[in-house]
Design brief:
Blueprint lengths: L5 E8 L2 E5 L11 H13 L3 E14 L4 E12 L14 E7 L11 H10 L7 E9 L5 E6 L1
Parallel strand pairs: 3-6
Antiparallel strand pairs: 1-2, 1-5, 3-4, 6-7
Length: 147
């Protein structure tokens, strides 16, 4: 976060383009915090200090028998003057600091929307989100969130 705005990326995927939180996979030997800092740097060019845990998420997709565990942390830029840059070779069209409440809900990836609705305005932390993802014949996806 910087000046009350969140670092987000505009990511192109096979099923559409959405604003998302920077994320990715950890490498062997990394902690979740180290993986978060590396992925944010790779996707946005911004070096960050990792703070407290905001939430965890599990999403499962029966289509390809996939289950991912994500951990989202508060983070602040090491250099407040640094300008985000998108990693275009990864399908990232834009990286910027933005107030997600200024975006239309359809612009935000549904998995990220589930996190933002619980966290952004109330600043609630320490919660878990569990989502089942379905892939349809036309390639679109739908999401069911467990309570």
């Amino acid at each position: 976060m910087q000046d009350g705005k969140l670092l987000m990326i505009r990511q192109r995927r096979s099923y559409g383009v959405h604003w998302e939180l920077p994320s990715g996979y950890y490498e062997p030997g990394e902690s979740y915090e180290q993986a978060t800092a590396r992925e944010v740097l790779e996707e946005t060019g911004i070096e960050v200090d990792i703070g407290e845990l905001v939430c965890t998420m599990v999403w499962e997709r029966e289509h390809d028998r996939r289950r991912n565990l994500l951990a989202h942390f508060l983070a602040t830029p090491v250099d407040q003057t640094q300008v985000p840059r998108a990693q275009s070779e990864e399908g990232i069209e834009e990286a910027t600091f933005i107030d997600p409440s200024e975006l239309h809900i359809a612009e935000i990836h549904p998995l990220n929307e589930a996190i933002l609705e619980r966290w952004w305005k109330p600043r609630r932390k320490g919660f878990h989100v569990h989502a089942d993802v379905s892939v349809h014949p036309d390639g679109t996806q739908s999401y069911v969130f467990r309570r």
